[in-house]
Write a structure and sequence with these properties.
Helix content is about 75%, strand content about 5%. It has 12 helices and 3 strands. A 3-stranded mixed beta sheet has the order 2-1-3. It is globular, with a radius of gyration of 21 Å.
Amino acid sequence: MKTENDSKVMEFVLLGLSSYKELQLFLIFMFSLFYVVTILGNLLIMVTVGADVHLLQSPMYYFLGHLSFIDLCLSCVTVPKALEVYLQQDKTISFSGCLAQIYFLHFLGASEMFLLTVMAYDRYVAICDPLHYLTIMNRRLCLQLVLACWCGGFIHSVSQVILVIQLPFCGPNELDNFYCDVPQVIKLACTDIFLVEVLMVSNSGLLSLTCFLVLLFSYAVILITLRNHLYQGQTKAFSTCASHVTVVSLIFIPCVFIYLRPFCSFSMDKVFSVFYTVITPMLNPFIYTLRNTDMKTAMMKLRKISCFFLLLS
């Protein structure tokens, strides 16, 4: 008879998105492409904001720099392991590695949600109270808001790890995804997980839904304000809000779908997981820069400066 230590799960097997060789080759190519574009795109935004004094002093671009940093880190949590699964056929991940992935995934994900809420508040003040905007959104408040986002993400991620680490795992150990996350891992526990799933919904699920509803309400108020008060920068404000709403939808809809639905799983879960962890971090740089004149101008300046130093060298 096996003892408890003999039957304790020490590692998990990641089944990935597909077992077909042809599809795996396609996934390797697409994941590698998305990963490179994500790293380069978000690094470009961070360097552009950091190198331009005008952008760095603007609260919106200050927050955007932090958002790009989060997206860059978020892609590094899941994509490298997914590529390792397909390239080296090493589908295992240790129990501690799985916990680390859950921690950083929720730490960065929750911090991003809080930061997007802060960015919505920033746009609300800029559009609804433009005369006092710089007074209200001063550098000290911006720093405090960013720190609050990181602290909120830390508290949330610790609570998610606590949900998992206290559960007994004695087999099976196959996770039907390309990374570790709470909904898949807790289903492998050899105990009743009803209470854990309720806690997951009340934490991750309600957090995602509450932030999403607050953001939608905030942007609805902003759009109503823009409609009732015409001014010269209205087109630019509409463009900025449209970019923010697009990012919010791409992030929050998958999270609400995954975490607000306990006790069952669907085949679409993997698709939403790819959107949240792979595609959205890649799209954010394009969404925020394609229709943003300030970012385009700053990037052109950065390009000219880079070319100048290359000529000197």
